[in-house]
Amino acid sequence: MNPEAPDHPGASVLPPAAASEHFFAWNGVAFLLPASWELSYCDLRRGVTSVAHEDDCDRRLEAEWLVPDGLPSQDKVQNRFQQQVRAIAEKAGAVLPITGIDDAWTAHEYHLGAAAGRQSSRGAVTRQPQPDEAAAVLVIAYRLPRGPDEPMALFRLHFPPGSREVPAVVMRSLCRSFRWWSAGEAPWQFYDVSFMLRRDFRLAATALQAGRKLLQFEWRLRRLYVWHFSLAELVLAKQSVEAFCVDFLRQSKKLLPVPRWSITSAGGLTYRRRRLHFFGQFEEIGRCCFKYYAWCRHDPARNQIALWVMHYRRAADLQLLPAAIRPDSGHSAP
Questions:
Q1: DSSP string of 168-209, one letter each residue
Q2: Mind listing the domains of the chain with CATH numbers?
Q3: pTM for the predicted model, two decimal places
Q4: Residues 155, 139 contacting (CB under 8 angstroms)
């Protein structure tokens, strides 16, 4: 399902989106969103992934998903969901089910401020009034897994009064495009960042800043750092990609205190170990990882510089990286 990227780690298995939409892919899950909705929050606790998206004015989406150990009871989930949304349903003037979606999904529109209607115990409207087009709309949807290793997901979509998006259309697009990866290579796609990475790597930390995004992953005590830098033409006007990455890594001693990076004669990145660096050696001993590998690339299409650094144990560990950046693809490991 997810072939290795032959050219660069930015190659994605996601199909192209319409001009009004874009794919968001994060931690094994991907779905379509309106083009103006961008990631504003992310968290990962106890196996539950949480994200939020905003447009230029308001928060528009909140989503959570996890892969349960077993298949949850549909009746228990439905009863708990009804209890959670009961207060919202009582205040809403209209509660409309969203049709035309997969059976795994349950979704409703809650029109806040519309003419009062009468809701049933299941949150459905027994007498559906005409919704007020000027009212705010809250869409709440959940997805139940139908097989092992499938995610269970909860979505909340906010549509302020006068929103140009049609709630049901946005929700149907999200449901129909929703896909997941439990193994193999999965896409990561957000902002101007796009790459493929094996699901063996687990997200450990993020630092998403303007012009610089860092995702830190771990796999069996190995560490992988993936940086993406925007506005590459400003950097390349003063120095090469390799020189910029070396300078950046030299300033990142808190993350990587042991290696001292330099440029090889072939134009790659290599390192020498700092001597007597107590804290760095202590962490290396604890992880039993004493080797480092770095790869960098300029992507003219995105005006972006990508920098990958892996702290690993043995040469075979590097085979988990995307094919395009492994040492056997033309880059040598120190």
A1: HHHHHHHHHH-EE-SSSEEEEEETTEEEEEETTSEEEEEEEE
A2: 21-180 (3.40.1000.10), 200-329 (no CATH)
A3: 0.87
A4: yes
Alpha carbon 129 to its chain centroid, in Å, reads 38
DSSP-derived letter for residue 330 is: T
Work out the pLDDT band at 127, boundaries 50, 70, 90. very low
Sequence-distant contacts of 19-24: CB under 8 A, at least 24 apart: 21/173, 23/177, 23/187, 23/189, 24/51, 24/53, 24/189, 24/190
Q: In whole angstroms, what is the distance from residue 331 CA to residue 325 CA?
A: 7
3-state secondary structure of 280: helix
pLDDT digits (tens, 9 = 90+) for 159-206: 999 899 999 999 999 999 999 999 999 999 999 999 999 999 999 999
Q: How far apart are CA 229 and CA 282, in angstroms?
A: 30
Residue 309 CA to residue 292 CA, distance in Å, equals 7
Q: How far apart are CA 34 and CA 285, in angstroms?
A: 47
Angle at 302 between CA 296 and CA 303, to 5 degrees: 70
In order of 112, 116, 163, the CA distances from 134 in angstroms are 10, 14, 9
Of the candidates 117, 116, 114, 113, the residue with the CA atom closest to the CA atom of residue 126:
117
Q: Which one-letter amino acid corresponds to residue 52?
A: A
Percent of the chain residues past pLDDT 70, beyond the cut: 87
Question: At CA 75, angle to CA 72 and CA 79, rounded to 5?
Answer: 110
First-last CA distance in the chain: 33
